[in-house]
Design a protein that fits this description.
Rossmann fold; alpha/beta; 13 helices; single chain; 280 residues
């Protein structure tokens, strides 16, 4: 996801489908406010609670993991601040680092991590991330986590889907296996008050469904993050979220990496059983 302060004003302003519901809620409560005013108040409250203590520079974790295992596999991370690891306490706690270490252990191969993901990125920015890769670079497997900022900035799911399809197809054209972590459940953000949180849950799940569909249509693997890690974030928010109460903590990234690992190993051609949370 992107930086909260940057996205909150644009996001949670008014999602048209929910205005009637919110207006009804306001009327039922006897408040002389419109649905739009309700959302503005909720957004202001969310900004005040969340703040922006992490900045926009995640830890740099790119290196070769388990060099002693020989010729490395190339692992590429694309997407937004979750893919970049914002919120992790140390470089080795980022999503990319935790995946690299686990893939190395699972394959007995060294793993070279390259993180092209950027804080604040929307799905439309995947193309630029691919264009910015070093000349001649080839990844064995790419992990894409994106979508939170699309929801926050009210990008239509159909548009997000199109941009994701283009990125997945380009990666496959380069001979890279692709694993997509679908949009996390924004309803897990307990720092965001209701009814704003319910709107976030609905929008993020709609986008995740679109991402899952297009990913599987192209023959890549989709991991439903809302399904496999969302319950942990809901049940243990103090542990799973970082100090901004928006991005994952080191523990949150560990849980996410463990959930995605089986799909990454399958994408690399190992004979591990297909995980129940993944769809191909």
């Amino acid at each position: 996801m992107g930086a909260p302060a940057r996205g909150s004003r644009a996001t949670w302003r008014a999602a048209t489908p929910a205005l009637a519901v919110l207006t009804g809620l306001a009327g039922a409560a006897g408040l002389a406010v419109t649905g739009r005013q309700v959302i503005r108040r909720q957004a202001a409250s969310a900004r005040a609670v969340i703040g922006k203590p992490l900045g926009e520079r995640p830890h740099a974790a790119d290196r070769t993991y388990k060099k002693s295992y020989g010729e490395p596999l190339q692992l590429l991370l694309l997407g937004d601040s979750i893919a970049a690891g914002l919120g992790a306490a140390k470089p080795k706690h980022t999503l990319g680092a935790q995946l690299a270490a686990r893939v190395a252990k699972g394959t007995r191969r060294a793993v070279r991590l390259h993180t092209a993901a950027r804080v604040g990125a929307e799905t439309s920015m995947l193309r630029a991330q691919l264009a910015g890769l070093p000349p001649g670079y080839h990844a064995d497997v790419a992990v894409v986590v994106v979508g939170g900022n699309d929801v926050i900035h009210r990008v239509r799911p159909s548009e997000s889907r199109r941009h994701l399809a283009e990125a997945v197809a380009e990666l496959q054209g380069r001979g890279t296996a692709v694993v997509v972590g679908t949009c996390p459940d924004l309803g897990a953000l307990t720092a965001v008050p209701q009814p704003l949180r319910a709107m976030g849950r609905l929008a993020s799940r709609q986008l995740a469904k679109a991402q899952r569909e297009v990913t599987t249509e192209l023959g890549a693997t989709a991991v439903d993050l809302a399904e496999v890690v969302g319950p942990f974030f809901i049940a243990q928010p103090d542990q799973m979220f970082s100090i901004d109460r928006f991005h994952p903590s080191s523990a949150g990234y560990k849980r996410t990496a463990k959930a995605m690992l089986p799909s990454v190993l399958v994408a690399l051609g190992l004979s591990a059983p297909e995980p129940s949370n993944a769809v191909r």
